[in-house]
Design goal:
By secondary structure, the protein is mainly alpha-helical. The chain folds into three domains: 1-128, Rossmann fold (3-Layer(aba) Sandwich); 130-163 and 192-287, Serine Threonine Protein Phosphatase 5, Tetratricopeptide repeat (Alpha Horseshoe), CATH 1.25.40; 298-476, DNA Cyclobutane Dipyrimidine Photolyase, subunit A, domain 3, CATH 1.10.579.10. The protein contains 20 helices and five strands. The chain has helices at 21-28, 48-67, 79-90, 103-117, 148-155, 195-198, 206-219, 224-227, 240-244, 250-262, 268-287, 310-316, 323-335, 340-353, 358-368, 374-385, 400-407, 412-417, 426-434, 454-466, and strands at residues 7-11, 33-39, 73-76, 94-98, 122-126. Strands 3-2-1-4-5 form a five-stranded parallel β-sheet, with helices on both faces. Helix 13 (323-335) crosses helix 14 (340-353) and helix 14 (340-353) crosses helix 16 (374-385). The radius of gyration is 23 Å and the shape is globular. The N and C termini lie far apart (70 Å).
């Protein structure tokens, strides 16, 4: 009767029916399928905004499964313990899941796989949310890549697996196991009053994600390379939140770009390069897991970072006195996202002009980004700070005023998120409805003076960087 025993499909960051290898393999087995989500030890570590957005992804996916005659079982607790309880309750002989690649998730999954196999049941992981598995790309010496450009070139020689077909139905068990309700997980609580502001700017679910991809490919991808950095125009795909929760697959995006490239769209290859940049982040997280917590370049352990302080709080609150920086930090609180160019600018300002530890910024993004991605967040912060995989970190100090002139010439971006007293735009004023009341900020407050002169900040940063001396970083001496 083995072939009639249920398969538990453990859903984590793959809330879609198309190009979902684990769910498709379960469907093709012909056996009853029990999709399960577990609020486990990994997800409990998420910040408020990621938890809230995860809750929205689950809400939508529950409806998606119901539309094909299935259900999503909801559980809470230690992942292995919950799965073993489900196995006992349902008689399941197999557990399938899509791989995760960040250190904390890998550690959990190894424990789960070993625990299930120890009772002689099948525990099988499938390709997850990347285009390329992080162990595939290798240097000529057979090691992992520490620099993006050669890795990008190596990816050209790796065949991308085709997308798997959409799951259209799932066999159901004779009896469903016990399940919690979504509200029992309390995923929506941390966002408090900011949730109703941020929700206006979300694109939730597989159907909307695919529509957004089609719109991007049809109207924007040709100009993507030339205009993606413009803060005053929208030429990005806007799919980061959907990619984070697996509402769209990275392969679907990759092949859409490949098709556009064949049609002669100028920005298509660069869009693939941005997808590959995310792959590079997971490549590093997989091979050097310390990137998420420690300086990737160990010589930076001696750098005199400042810790949490009043300047850091002003940065978090969008009160630095630098209009472009403050606009970006307020965009984060209003929309739950931030333009990629702006992310680099606020990171540079915090770590270089203010000399504050990159981990302070990384942790704030973990708390506030609805498209938070552990590997991309960690690598992005270290790349900008100089402690990560940037070939020229010490002199890469962005000037917010110069960047504003270049990428927000008509002040459209700044005006969208900065209030002019209490008479500003509705969107800009919504910042004060979203932020914690404990910040005690009002639209009536005068705009703050700059925390530091930009030239002084740059010179101070360069002086601090030049104090770093090591064999690996002689350029700083």
């Amino acid at each position: 009767m083995e072939n009639k025993s249920p398969i538990i499909v453990w859903m984590r960051r793959d809330f879609r029916l198309h190009d979902n290898p684990a769910l498709k393999a379960a469907q093709e087995s012909g056996r009853p399928i029990i999709p399960v989500f577990i609020l486990d030890e990994v997800i409990n570590s998420f910040g408020s905004a990621p938890k809230w957005r995860l809750g929205k992804a689950l809400e939508c996916f529950i409806s998606t499964l119901e539309a094909i005659g299935s259900r999503l079982m909801i559980k809470k607790g230690n992942a292995l313990e919950i799965l073993l309880e489900l196995i006992e309750e349902t008689g399941a002989k197999s557990v399938y899941w899509s791989r995760a690649y960040d250190p904390i998730a890998i550690s959990r999954d190894k424990i789960v796989k070993a625990g299930i196999k120890s009772i002689n049941l099948e525990a099988k992981s499938f390709k997850g949310f990347l285009v390329f598995e992080p162990w595939l790309a290798k240097t000529k010496a057979g090691t992992f890549f520490k620099v993006y450009s050669p890795m990008w070139r190596s990816l050209q020689d790796i065949t991308v697996d085709p997308e798997v077909k959409e799951v259209t139905s799932l066999n159901t068990p004779d009896e469903w196991p016990k399940s919690l309700n979504l509200v029992d997980l309390s995923l929506f609580k941390g966002m408090n009053r900011g949730a109703q502001i941020v929700e206006k700017f979300t694109t939730i679910g597989e159907r909307k994600a695919l529509a957004k991809l089609n719109n991007f490919v049809g109207k924007k991808i040709n100009d993507y390379k030339d205009k993606r950095n413009n803060l005053d125009e929208d030429f990005c795909s806007g799919l980061s939140e959907n990619l984070t929760y697996g509402e769209i697959s990275a392969r679907r995006m990759w092949f859409a770009a490949e098709h556009s490239k064949q049609l002669g769209m100028r920005g298509a290859e660069h869009f693939q390069k941005e997808i590959a940049w995310r792959e590079f982040a997971y490549h590093l997280a997989y091979h050097t897991p310390q990137i998420e917590t420690d300086n990737w370049r160990s010589e930076w352990n001696a750098f005199p970072w400042k810790g949490n302080c009043e300047d850091a709080e002003k940065w978090r609150q969008g009160q630095t006195g630098e209009p472009l920086i403050d606009a970006a930090m307020r965009e984060l609180y209003i929309t739950g996202k931030m333009h990629n160019r702006a992310r680099m600018l606020v990171a540079s300002y915090l770590t270089k002009h203010l000399l504050i530890d990159w981990r302070i910024g990384k942790e704030w993004f973990e708390e506030t980004l609805i498209d938070w991605d552990p590997a991309s967040n960690a690598m992005g912060w270290q790349w900008v700070a100089g402690s990560g995989p940037d070939a020229a970190p010490y002199f890469r100090i962005f000037n917010p005023q110069g960047q504003a002139e270049k990428f927000d010439e008509k002040r459209i971006y700044r005006n969208s998120y900065l209030n002019d007293g209490c008479g500003g735009s509705e969107q800009a004023l919504s910042f004060f409805d979203a932020i914690p009341k404990s910040w005690n900020l009002s639209c009536k407050d005068a705009y703050p003076k700059p925390l530091i002169d930009l030239k002084v900040g740059r010179e101070r940063a360069l002086l601090a960087y030049k104090s770093l001396k090591s064999e690996d970083n002689e350029k700083f001496s």
